[in-house]
Amino acid sequence: MTKIRIGGVPEHFNLPWQLTQELGIFAKKGLEVDWRFYSNGTGAMVKDLADNKLDMAVLLSEGAVHAIQNGLQAKLLKMYVKTPLIWGIHAGVNSPLQSVKNLEEHEIAISRFGSGSHLMSAIDAHFRNQIVKIEQYTTVENLKGALEHLDRNPNTIFYWEKYTTKPSVDSGLLKRIGEFVTPWPCFVIVANESFMAKHELEVKKLLDTMIFSCKQFMQSVDNAIPILTERFEMQEEDAYNWFYCTEWDTGYEISTKMIESIQFMLSKTQKSEIVFSPEYFIYQWRKEI
Q: In this structure, what CATH number is given to the domain that contains residue 267?
């Protein structure tokens, strides 16, 4: 049995993966899935994909495209979450900042370069007709690191998924001063090309299993809400709001418009050239799906 090492952020979006594994569904399908949580996000998973410590990952769409643009030998297999991500924009609870006005005047905390917290802050700045310089960024690894850094640095701003940080906002550890909605579907599933060359059938079985699990999850709001409130410290109202604002993808079609849009925004914010067609990023299945 082939072990498939796959990573994802420890957030509510990946609850279908957790439940599928806990219910033994992967094992029943003859799959050995080594699911790994990455609290420091897309940038850390990209590094482990490049170092062959992961075979697959659930990545933010912009992070995946950016990584492949910059040489990661991986491809997009399918969309995972087809709705946008709502980024909360945060400051320390004792910061004088009450809103986002001029990003050019602030330090910006990020998990690491190439992560969503990095790329989205630059894209948000672009929409505000501003430019964030590389020296404005400071790496904090994850949400825990951000809480500690923002507590000591009142002029720092931090972008992280709204509902993940909501418990810290509610408890007075963090202050939300704005929001930014991703201009495209938020999560994709990627795999190393070398792994796909040997294990396409197993990966296809894995993805088919997750499509079924995501369909079941989307139809099970009464079961999902208690789990969300318990595991992710969400208020019931927040859990309902998030659940009904989120749609998982249940097919294999990948939006070429999404890839074009991301490349365009990266060309504006990361000085990257648009040198690849959308098809370059998408895995071409050798066997009929």
A: 3.40.190.10
Give me the number of domains the chain comprises.
2
pTM above 0.85, yes or no: yes
In a shared domain, residues 213 and 268:
yes
Q: How many CA atoms lie within 13 A of 218 on its CB side?
A: 16
* 190 plus 169 within the same structural domain: no
Strand order in the sheet with 156-161: 137-139, 107-110, 156-161, 86-92, 174-181
How do the pLDDT tens digits run along the chain, 289 residues long? 789 999 999 999 999 999 999 999 999 999 999 999 999 999 999 999 999 999 999 999 999 999 999 999 999 999 999 999 999 999 999 999 999 988 989 999 999 999 999 999 999 999 999 999 999 999 999 999 999 999 999 999 999 999 999 999 999 999 999 999 999 999 999 999 999 999 999 999 999 999 999 999 999 999 999 999 999 999 999 999 999 999 999 999 999 999 999 999 999 999 888 889 999 999 999 866 5
